[in-house]
Amino acid sequence: MTSTRTGRRGRPRGTRNTSSILKQALDEKHAVTDQNGKRLRRTALELLLEQLRNKAIGGSQPAFRLMELLLHADGAATVAAGYLVVPQKLTLEEWIKREAAKRKAKEAHPAPA
Q: pTM for this one?
């Protein structure tokens, strides 16, 4: 006696899930020509990110927010804010004096080997 299963649930065998379809679509290579006329092969993901970057640079707030979101989600970059403290500008003579003093101090107290 053979029984047939008619009430199967779930994804049928052999079908792919959304993430694998998306990954395949983004990994597809496309031929593009750069500004110098050189032919390049780039993935769809690279091309999409380049377009998003260009829109963000052009002033599109939604594109900028999406770029920030992608950067933070990946953990690749952190935008830090703060102050840059720059020492006063020295004349050449002042710089030479300071460097000579540093060199003398180093020679007087050599680092342990």
A: 0.53
Please name which of 65, 75, 18, 22 lies closest in space to residue 45, comparing C-alpha atoms: 22
pLDDT digits (tens, 9 = 90+) for 20-42: 999 999 999 999 998 899 999 99
b/e map 61-73, b = 16+ CB within 10 Å: eebbeebeeeeee
The strand ranges marked E within 17-93 are 29-33, 39-43
Q: For the chain, how far is it from start to end, CA to CA, in angstroms?
A: 86
The single-letter code of the amino acid at 68 is E
Identify the pLDDT of residue 113: 63
- Per the DSSP assignment, residues forming a β-bridge with 29 are 43
Query: How many Å apart are CA 98 and CA 68, to the nearest integer?
Result: 43
Whole-number Cα distances in Å, 88 to 33, 94, 96, 103: 47, 11, 15, 21
Comparing C-alpha atoms, which of 67, 72, 71 is closest to residue 53?
67
